[in-house]
Amino acid sequence: MSPHTGPLGAHEVRARLAALRQGDLPVHGGRTLAYVYDAGLAEVDALAREAVAAFAGSNGLDPTAFPSLLAMENDLVAFAAELLDAPETMVGTLTSGGTESCLLAVQGARDARPDVTRPSMVLPDTAHAAFHKAAHYFGVRAVVVPTTADHRADPAAMAAAIDETTVLVVASAPSYAHGVVDPVAEVAAAAAAAGVRCHVDACIGGWVLPYAARLGRQVSPWTFAVPGVTSISTDLHKYAYAPKGASLLLHRTPALRRPQYFADAGWPGYTMLNATLQSTRSGGPVAGAWATVRAIGHDGYLELTRRALAATDAIADGIAGLDGLRLVAQPDSTLVGATAEGALDVFTVCDEMAARGWFVQPQMSFGDLPASLHLAVSATTDPDAFSAALTDAVAAARAAGPVVADPEVVALLAALDPATLGEEELDALLAAGGLTETGDATGDAAGGGGGPVLPERMAGVNALLDAAPARLREAVLVAFLDRLARPAPLPAGPVGSAE
Q1: Residue 362 placed within a domain
Q2: Where N6-(pyridoxal phosphate)lysine occurs along the chain (predicted)?
Q3: Which H/E stretch holds residue 54?
Q4: Total domain count, the chain
């Protein structure tokens, strides 16, 4: 029997799961500074996992069939309402994550304006890529407006970009790349003056900034207390520290949410009625989020926010005092960005941090902005340990010298048209970039070719990706993901034959 299809005993399943997880980044301990967020509360984590398991088989498709899920969702929305200065009319929906929340904000704004034939939305250039994904999916043209020198949205320029096709204006609290809060009050006022919706992407800050304000920190207005803000997205699986798969999209009134719903009775089956992009929705993330939020409560989140912000401040101060690194901006929340100066290479710094057990996220250059490293600081992040590792990493990176892309290769990359690249050309680019096990990137088992792989040190790969035009970078990374997401070849012989 094929090892792909043969049954496994419970002990072997657990052993294989444990073995598979060995290659993953750690989700606890505060050293993975992207993708995961750790409160350091083992009992709450265990309770949340118990809740996920208990409701994993429940289906949010029909809230009348599983009223428990609706009750928990409404309770989470009510909890968020206290944080976001919401009016009594506010309503909300639990989604699978920040991207789905942002997608639905765009879809709802588009469908609320059937009179606009070529709808557009106005975005600062720091708006999350989820809005560009929404533009691609929903045919809403993205009008991108440059930000000011402090990386915040330019209200005057955004107001000037609004026209008769605009259905949505977006601001961030904070922006992901730079960790600063946009001037939401001015942006929302411009949108309101034009009769246009204003969405605030607070997927990162929604569960941090309200508590930061309670701790006495200066926080620019961004909630529903700001006139003109019509919707807000905030992720529960980020700084609410819930298990993955939970975000909230909140609307000021039910009328604003209504275009988000999809209903279809034009087929022989049940009348489809969906509040999100999904139909079937596991109850696991709902229950896991509810259990986490109710177990921690406002007092708990206040303390977690205090710890995360204190760690962020200490890390930012350490970066500012470290020769060769420069803060992109003083963080308004828990996100930190830093660029390298002189002969120091930021991608090599990221590699050196990984060698010391810390994952920091590299960000490519954008316009006049150089490449940077990015941190999402959790309540469990130890700022002293981080700063010590960073000091060592910077020294090692400086000693190693910068990784420089070959000028001839850079010139070749600039001349390539990604729209014309075939599979063989993409294979060659992956091989040249060191993203395959051998020089043959086809992954053809019969021919002995190597499959896609990430090298242990990524600075060289990132230097080439950074040098590539954005569209070519996208094409190469899509090709890499496409080749990565393929099953291993089946063994020779008839399917189901004995081993």
Answers
A1: yes
A2: 238
A3: helix 42-55
A4: 3
Same domain as 232, residue 158 = yes
Q: Are residues 338 and 453 in the same domain?
A: no
Cβ atoms within 10 A of the Cβ of 495, count?
10
Phi/psi at 183 (5° precision) = -75, 80
What percent of the chain has a predicted confidence (pLDDT) above 90? 87
Q: Give, as one character, the DSSP assignment of residue 426.
A: H
Here the tokens at position 159 are 């107001």
Q: How many residues does the chain have?
A: 499
pLDDT at 4: 63
180: nearest Cα among 124, 102, 251 = 124
* 449-to-4, 157, 362, 383 alpha-carbon distances in Å: 21, 52, 29, 44
User: Which residues does the chain have with pLDDT short of 50?
Assistant: 439-449, 495-499
pTM of the full structure: 0.94
Tokens 């989020």 belong to 289
**pLDDT for 495:** 44
Residue with tokens 């002990």: 11
Q: Report d(CA 352, CA 389) in Å as an integer.
A: 9
**Interaxial angle between packed helices 283-320 and 67-83, expressed in degrees from 0 to 180 and rounded to the nearest 10:** 30
For residue 379, being part of any structural domain is answered with yes
pLDDT at 499: 35
Q: What are phi and psi of 154, to 5 degrees?
A: -95, 100
Provide the 10 A C-beta neighbour count for residue 334. Answer: 28
Instruction: Show the domain range for 472.
Output: 407-484
